[in-house]
């Protein structure tokens, strides 16, 4: 299953969007 996401980094406030199969891994990469 793929997930679409739009997240804001807690480090620099940048917004990222995309899709991934591993949502938890992607959140860790952006924060």
Would you write up a description of this structure?
β1 (3-8) and β2 (15-20) form a beta hairpin. The chain is an alpha+beta fold. The mean pLDDT is 89. The protein is flat and about 30 Å long. The chain has 1 helix and 2 strands. It has one domain (1-31). The longest helix is centred in the last third of the chain and has 8 residues, at 23-30. A two-stranded antiparallel sheet has the order 1-2.
Summarize this, please?
With 31 residues, this protein is of the alpha+beta class.
What is Rg? 9 Å
What is the general shape?
flat
**What is the average of the pLDDT values?**
89
Estimate the strand proportion: 35-45%
Output the structural class. Answer: alpha+beta
Distance between the termini: 22 Å
Count of strand segments: 2
So how many helices?
Answer: 1
Unreliable stretches covering 5 or more consecutive residues: none
Sheet with most strands: strand arrangement: 1-2
H/E element string? Answer: EEH
Q: How would you characterize the largest beta sheet?
A: 2 strands, antiparallel
The number of domains: 1
Helix content: 25-40%
Structural key phrases:
26% helix, 39% strand, 31 residues
List the helices and strands and how they pair.
Blueprint: E1 3-8, E2 15-20, H1 23-30
InterPro entries: GIY-YIG_endonuc, GIY-YIG_endonuc_sf
Pfam family, one: GIY-YIG
Domain GIY-YIG: 2-31
């Amino acid at each position: 299953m793929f997930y679409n996401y739009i997240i804001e980094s807690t480090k620099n406030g940048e917004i990222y969007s995309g899709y991934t199969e591993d949502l938890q891994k992607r959140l860790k990469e952006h924060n």
